Amino acid sequence: MHFITSRDELRRVYKPASENSLRKELKALDGHSVSFIGRSPFVLIGTSDGKGHADVTPKGDRPGFVAVLDNRTIAIPDRPGNNRLDTLENLLVEPSIGLLFLIPGMDETLRINGKAKITADDSLRARFEVDGKLPQAVILVEVEAAYMHCAKAFMRSQLWHPETWPERNSMPTLGQMLKDQLALDQSAEAMDSWLDDAYAKSMW
């Protein structure tokens, strides 16, 4: 099997990008970008450890949980998780970050690329208080590029069409997956119960 190894070879496989697809990239947030972020309850975050290992993590909260501080800066609260800290540790050594914002039912997405820093500043954390609880840290992103991504991926996948969704019981529960993957002695039911309890106690 032959693999493509150069930009010129890659470009011979694809048609040239249209002028509008190149011009749509903004260097700062406009009103549409700000509005999209304000309505989004979910963002995917891509980072790298600087050694060739990439990572993508989901962040979700109530719509508008990501704050726009100005047209070049956004702030993402970091809620309780598993404390692996893959994303945060990556950002300490390689601040480049890629974001993909989603709005349920909308096939278009917003992409943002930039540089990120981590802060535990009390006044900024207080801005994201939910039910008396503060995020453990906040990711500040300096926007370098922002643009709308077309709908084709969501149209092909029919992601927002419930009639295409598989029955949930056709897949094992997370408790069953963890039991098998980690060779745990606990039953799948016990693991699921533990997970439910952990979710209830540490959502924010």
Give a short synopsis of this structure.
The chain has 204 residues and is of the alpha+beta class. It contains eight helices and seven strands; from the N terminus they run αααββββαββαβααα. The protein has a seven-stranded antiparallel sheet, with helices on one face.
What this model shows, in words?
The structure is a single chain. The longest helix is centred in the C-terminal third of the chain and has 14 residues, at 188-201. This protein has 8 helices and 7 strands. The chain is α+β, with helices and mostly antiparallel strands and 204 residues long. The chain folds into 2 domains: 7-152, Pnp Oxidase, Chain A (Roll); 166-201, no CATH class.
SSE layout:
Elements lengths: L6 H7 L5 H5 L7 H9 L2 E7 L5 E7 L6 E4 L2 E6 L7 H8 L2 E7 L6 E11 L2 H5 L10 E13 L2 H6 L16 H9 L5 H14 L3
Antiparallel strand pairs: 1-2, 1-5, 3-4, 4-7, 5-6, 6-7
CATH superfamily membership of the largest domain, which one? Electron Transport, Fmn-binding Protein, Chain A
CATH level-3 fold name of the largest domain: Pnp Oxidase, Chain A
Walk across the major sheet and give the strand order: 2-1-5-6-7-4-3
Which architecture name of the largest domain does CATH use? Answer: Roll
Strand content: 25-35%
Structural class: alpha+beta
DSSP helical segment count: 8
- Determine the N-to-C terminus distance: 49 Å
Q: Stretches where pLDDT falls below 50 for ≥5 residues?
A: none
